[in-house]
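Hi all, a correction to my earlier message: I attached the wrong file for G-protein coupled receptors family 1 profile domain-containing protein. Here's the right sequence:
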Amino acid sequence: MEDNYTQDVENEVPPHVWGIIHEFLLGQADPGLDLRQPHLRPSVASSYPFILFMYSLLMVTGVALNLSVFVHIIRNKLYNDVTCSFVLNNVISDIVKCVVVLPMTLYVLLVNNWILGELLCSFLPMLQDIPMHTTTLTFVLMAWDRLRFIRHPTKARMPAFVCIIGTWLASVCFVLPYPIYIIYIDLGKHISALDGVGICLINLADDMQEYMRGIFLIMYASPLATISYFYVKVSRELQTQQSSLTVIKFETRREGRSRTDSHSTTTDFRSSRGDCDRSSQYSRNSYRDHDIGRTRYETDVSDLDLVKEKRTQKYLVPMVTLYAICLCPLMILRLARLVLPETYDNNKNFDITYTMFVWLAFAPTCSTPLLYAIWQMNRSSKERLLGYFRFSNRKLRQSCETVITAAGTPAVPRAKCSHADSIVQQVDDGHSDNNSFQQDFASS
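and the right structure:
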């Protein structure tokens, strides 16, 4: 088969021209190589087993974790909650990344010559960016919905299904200009021996830098800045409502104590309040307005589970933070590759760096479902899991209680033990904050 290929080439293409074609496509002038077969990039020839292992590990782990989260949400019907619906959309996007995008991206990163045809040359960048933009828009809508819900718990939340469809449609619209900036040269039209072999490159006649800068600003920098603003407002709103709720409960408890006083004291208080009512025409209305406003605020606060929302905030913020940090190097490198010239001297560095940054950009497909699993895990499961890493509450307390001298005096100060307990309490899933809040209120 290879002899026939060599004879066909020698009959159609002069040897010196054939050497130039091989040098351009493969980086080595060897006319005996069949360009219709995939050939490994020389820059990754020594490290491709490690690259294959890392990408395979990422794909398998990402699919397994996201499928587990998908089954958990569907089985327990958590999609009725808007936040879980957005998480479900993110899970679907991550599954698409691991099943479709990552294998094709890995193939392009490792193979030097393009044999995938004209269709994938034009649409592969679109397939790579659609799920990534969907994830970004999902995080934006999730943060916006949470801010609306925290501020007005009684109002209707955003329609999750409509928003999810909108994220995918908007992502498709953002990547539509890609085929304009990509050109494909079919070598099979000029040389029959190269049927199926082509050259896929950026169309230098059009300025792609402006488009990539726009994508960076519209689909990375601006959404993350918006998400940060929303979550800062949510955190402040939760702190404000928790402080207000504490004050309301304290006043309610104090009024309950005042009603248990003696009859004479109650009578004097009422008579004095009546004197105030008679002395001012606005006093009665002021008391009524205060009671109505307070009742409304108590109703709004009662509809909002502050402990649950603080716990949700505790895990959603790391999801977005890890996603932004992991995606940042790839977005910057995509801008830099359009400005920095790529030569034979720095080609290896570009390829290795780009391969590493692509892997890092897809790493949140594993971190996001892990954070969701920890979020949904109960307290006993967390303590049992942390016990495997020797950080459980039981082992920390044992280490403090067993270090005792022969005279019965603790060799470790009690302050350190209490500090260890506080560390475990911070590692806990948020119920410790609830308990401490309830204990503080009960003591008042």
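Sorry for the mix-up. The beta strands are 182-186, 198-202.
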